[in-house]
Design goal:
Layout (H helix, E strand, L loop, with lengths): L9 E6 L4 H14 L5 E6 L3 H6 L6 H4 L1 H18 L14 H9 L6 H13 L8 H10 L5 H8 L2 H16 L7 E4 L2 E4 L4 H10 L2
Parallel strand pairs: 1-2
Antiparallel strand pairs: 1-3, 3-4
Helix pairs in contact: 1-4, 1-6, 5-8, 5-9, 6-7, 7-8
């Protein structure tokens, strides 16, 4: 991962692999930043600890059926609008812990963004079990990683597990309460529908 120059705008993308709206944001972010000279920093984190702080033991989309029904229909509309493949998963939410650890371990790899996009497609377009190491190895191979099993092994290292916990704690400290969230020049933006606002802020405010 190349280091940003002092003048290069940077956009942090905070995402959770169980997040439905993160699927939309991740699949359309490249087109949204095209020609803007923005460097993306991918920040996987876990929503579970944040939800637990709110007294939830499940996704709010499961806890509140009307909210969940709206979300699934909204997701269908958004994916159709942006040409993003989508199929409602047979199980929700799916565990993204291992995939998040892989993303942490591979933060400097050129295929990281492709892997992140591929994991979301597997979960929200192909109805595949992204918590499975075998599925993740397939996805790593799909994005050109020739040593998929090595990355799965690295993802289980104690230091990688610690870094994901620390990154989740950092998300909480930043005031992040949902995914996707974006941080541009210290400003927090929540939701895939705030992606363009975050991009504008990253390039227009000093």
């Amino acid at each position: 991962m190349a280091h940003a120059s002092p003048s290069q705008p940077t956009l942090q993308v905070w995402f959770e692999f169980a997040s439905t709206y993160s699927h939309v944001a991740v699949q359309r972010i490249d087109a949204a930043i095209a020609g803007r000279g923005i460097r993306l920093e991918w920040r996987p984190f876990l929503l579970g600890p944040i939800f637990h702080q709110q007294g939830w033991d499940d996704s709010p989309f499961n806890i509140y059926p009307a909210k969940g029904a709206y979300m699934w229909r909204d997701l269908e509309r958004l994916c159709e609008k942006h040409g993003i493949p989508f199929r409602k998963p047979s199980r929700f939410p799916r565990g993204g812990l291992l995939a998040s650890r892989v993303a942490i371990a591979a933060e400097r790899e050129p295929w990281l963004e492709d892997f992140i996009q591929r994991v979301y497609l597997a979960s929200f377009a192909e109805d595949r079990e992204i918590s499975s190491p075998d599925v993740l190895m397939d996805l790593l191979q799909d994005v050109g990683c020739a040593t998929a099993s090595v990355w799965i092994e690295r993802a289980e290292a104690p230091e990688i597990k610690l870094r994901l916990r620390e990154q989740t704690e950092q998300a909480i400290a930043l005031g992040i309460f949902g995914a996707p969230s974006f941080v541009a020049r210290g400003e927090l933006f929540w939701g895939q529908d705030r992606l363009e606002d975050a991009i504008e802020w990253s390039t227009s405010h000093e």
